[in-house]
TrEMBL record:
It is a multi-pass membrane protein. It comes from marine metagenome. NCBIfam families: integ_memb_HG. The lineage of its organism: unclassified sequences, metagenomes, ecological metagenomes. This is DUF3817 domain-containing protein. The chain crosses the membrane at residues 21-41, 47-66, 78-95. The keyword Ion transport does not apply.
Length: 110
């Protein structure tokens, strides 16, 4: 595997962490909106905007994840784990610990 500059690795991992956190928050907001507005208040239209925003953020996360797999030379299995985590509430926050550790390891190796 080719050497990846530390700054590039850090930037790619940081971008993945930030987008993952934003996407994770949007998923939780969508779930709360769905429960409150759709189920309790019966206002199905009220979740359109949160759903749209979450969908766009999820696609952005998938794009950033694919870029990270390519740039970092990570196995597809690594990307599949992160993708599946993004489908679960709080999944991106759980996976963030590993990404943070990987960033710290990269910093110590330089």
């Amino acid at each position: 595997m080719a050497h990846i500059p530390r700054a590039l690795k850090r930037r790619v991992l940081q971008r993945l962490r930030v987008i993952g956190a934003i996407e994770g928050v949007s998923f939780i907001v969508l779930m709360i909106a769905a429960i409150v507005f759709k189920r309790i208040l019966g206002q199905k239209e009220a979740i359109f905007i949160p759903g749209l925003v979450h969908g766009i953020l999820f696609l952005l996360y998938c794009t950033v994840l694919a870029h990270a797999i390519k740039v970092l030379g990570r196995p597809l299995r690594w990307g599949v784990k992160l993708f599946i985590a993004a489908l679960l509430p709080f999944g991106p926050f759980v996976m963030d610990r590993g990404l943070k550790r990987e960033m710290e390891t990269a910093d110590m190796q330089s």
